[in-house]
Amino acid sequence: MTSIQSRIEEIKSNGYQLDFGTVFEHAFQNYKKIALYAGLLFFVFTIVLGLSVSMGLVSYIGVKNMGEFNTKLQHFSSLKVVPTNILLPLNAGLILFSSLLAPFIAGFFKMADCGEKGEEFHVSTMFSFYKASYFWNIFISTLFISFLSSGLSILLELSGIEMIGTLISLTISFLTFLTIPLIIFGNLNAIDAIKSSIIIVSKQPIVLLGLLVVAIIAACIGLFALCIGMFFTYPFIYSMYYAIYSSIIGVEAEDELEKLDFEI
Fold it and tell me: Which of 103, 143, 108, 144 minimizes the C-alpha distance to 123?
């Protein structure tokens, strides 16, 4: 049994202790090391992604049909209930897109780890998790979690209990928020990472929820700086995830094979 599996079994049997103040301080210190670089990267990536999506949409729909498309969007936005034939394909597309994007987002956790250890971080490292050894587990786990969360939410929304659907969706996201760190730092497969995340979170839900709420509030502070500041405060969430994972599981020094995976 590997050290990560032994730690999970120990947590399952005995739980763990987590100090709110210590974890928050750890996250803040880590954030200060990556804030500028992560913010700039997030800003540039958002612009590139936005332009790419816009150009792709215009190319697919056609410039002549954009007016009609905008009219349809306004019509659907005015509806209280979006038609199923629009809602299901739209959500399916968003789930697939987020799953394909997840390995890139995982790069922010690697950035937090490099900042913690004082190691150099390169833009190309953000794409390291697209290697097969990581990609499929990150992709499958994100696809499964998103499908379950969105599926239940849509089902309950169509049943007329939208509030419950939203609550269940948020609960699933909360219970599984350590899935990707468990994959990239613990080398667990998708299913084991999801199950382990649920076990870990369920042992200290109040403290973990408090830490995440504080992280989200801190990230939203950037909205007051003409919204641009959001790009530089948002990475605090990843520093918090990293600090939580590090405090509970620990991030050991990579072995030689893992070092080769991230060597630029």
Answer: 108
Identify the three-state secondary structure at position 178. coil
What is the rounded CA–CA span in Å between residue 114 and residue 209? 25
Classify residue 159 as exposed, middle or buried by CB count within 10 Å of its CB (0-12, 13-18, 19+).
exposed
Q: Tally the C-alpha atoms within 13 A of residue 74's C-alpha that lie toward its C-beta.
A: 6
Residue 8 and residue 199 in contact, taking contact as beta carbons nearer than 8 Å: yes
Beta-carbon contacts of 242 under 8 Å, excluding residues fewer than 6 positions away, are 27, 30, 109, 112, 113, 116, 181, 251
d(CA 239, CA 30): 6
HEC letters along 103-139: HHHHHHHHHHHHHHHCCCCCHHHHHHHHCHHHHHHHH
Whether the CB-CB separation of 39 and 232 falls below 8 Å is answered with: yes
Specify whether the CB–CB gap between 32 and 220 falls below 8 A: no
Residue-wise pLDDT tens digits, 223-250: 776 567 778 899 999 999 999 999 999 8
Of 73-87, 123-137, 170-184, 247-261, give the range with the top mean pLDDT.
170-184
Q: How far is residue 138's CA from residue 129's CA, in Å, rounded to a whole number? A: 8
**d(C-alpha 54, C-alpha 8), whole Å:** 44
Of 97, 103, 109, nearest to 132 by C-alpha is 103
Residues listed for the chain: 264
Token pair for 109: 């956790």
For residue 67, count CB atoms less than 10 angstroms from its CB and return exposed for 0-12, middle for 13-18, buried for 19 or more.
exposed
Q: Please tell me the predicted confidence (pLDDT) of residue 176.
A: 97
Give the residue among 31, 15, 23 at the shortest CA–CA distance from 211: 23
